[in-house]
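Reply to dn_fold:

You asked what the input looked like. This is it:
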Amino acid sequence: MSLFNKMLASIGVGSAKVDTVLSKAVFHAGEVMEGVVKIYGGKTEQKIDALYLAVYTTYIRESDDRKFTDKAMIQKHKVLDGFTLAANEEKEIPFSFVLPFDTPVTKGATRVWIQTMLDIASAVDPTDKDYIQVEPTTLANTVLKEIENLGFRLRKAECEQASRKYRGVYPFMQEFEYVPMTGEFYGKLDEVEVVFLSQTPEKAELLLQIDRKARGFGGFLAEAMDQDETFVPLTVHKHETSEIKSRIYQLLRKYS
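and this is what came back:
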């Protein structure tokens, strides 16, 4: 390779391109993702240090009473170590990895995408961005469906910055905000927020924020001071899915 071509490659002119093709567009959290990364060589030979796939989402962060949208990496998976890509060469590299159980569900404003990255020293790294639809795990889906069966409707789903108390692996938590539309809790609760703190194949750790409707002057004072909200932890297991509706109902009745 001539010195001029090396300089072109180092600044990204005529360099490699990537395109990731997923086996499908809809995945469940915890499912194995499969696909192929297609790499197209440019006009010059290039040394590729590594090939990565990363799962990203966005979340809302508050600072000085202002809201900002940040992105967070959920997982980074190395597909391939270093290799040399010849000029005009084409490669197809299959991959598979497990989408983390705590991947946000793409409801409401939540977006999730797969970003493909070629790590090339001293160059503009080629990337590819593919949005995917993420459905909840079977256990999480049961929880959300049973809340709807109690007369609630999903009003908002959004990833927000996690407080220090509840911050885990990621800097955010996904909140599902439900409002009662029918049933026993209509007129008693303003809303119920559901947060999945962590999930595994066998269980899910939840946090319910139960917001009571103000009743009388004392109730309005409590609402103004945020004392009408109760935070209730809840753990559900895969083997007890038939009891989830009853357990949620008892908690909502207790704090409504």
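Residues 177 and 193 are 4 Å apart (CA to CA).
Hope that clears it up.
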